[in-house]
Amino acid sequence: MRSLQELRMLLSRLADDTATPADLEALRHAVQTGQVTLATGERAVAIGSSADGAIIVTGDGNIVQVLSARQRADLERLLAYRRYNLPTLPEHYVPREEYLAPLRQALLSDGAAALGIVGVRGMGGIGKSVLAAALAHDPQVQTAFPDGIVWLPIGRQPNLPARQEELYLFLTGQRENFRDEIQGRGFLASALAGKACL
Questions:
Q1: In whole angstroms, what is the distance from residue 166 CA to residue 103 CA?
Q2: Which of 79, 110, 131, 159 has the most CB atoms around its CB within 10 Å?
Q3: CA trace torsion 57, 62, 67, 71 (10° rounding)
Q4: pTM of the model
């Protein structure tokens, strides 16, 4: 549970575009648990906002922040962002921007988009998965991939058709049984056409 002051600071960072992945997770959690709600439409107008803006209200009825139309749209996009199986960051996660920045740059560069692959390698247990998860939670990365982020563990001896079926279900909401990875690739190519997913 966040204090009122912590929520105000978090929302201030969101308004300034300086929110961290941890901030966004905390805000999602506050909304999901009812600690804060987003008052919109007639309710927002009745308590001091505009029809296209919104007001963030705590569970005890305190107004935390009035949002403009742009801020409301940004917040709704962040709260509704499509993520599948994305692990949460460790409780005591410390951002390591010196490692995250080059990986973010590699992922968001034109060459990476054309190739579609960016990798992280190293010894077991040094934090590659945490670094990849932090990248997936990064607001810049989420903005670059507006159609969602999927975290799909493959393993050393994967059942590729099963993983493809899982991905296809996330993308389309439909279940399919692929006889092999070639058929799965064809279905996924169709489902991904025109989409920007990570």
A1: 26
A2: 131
A3: -50
A4: 0.61
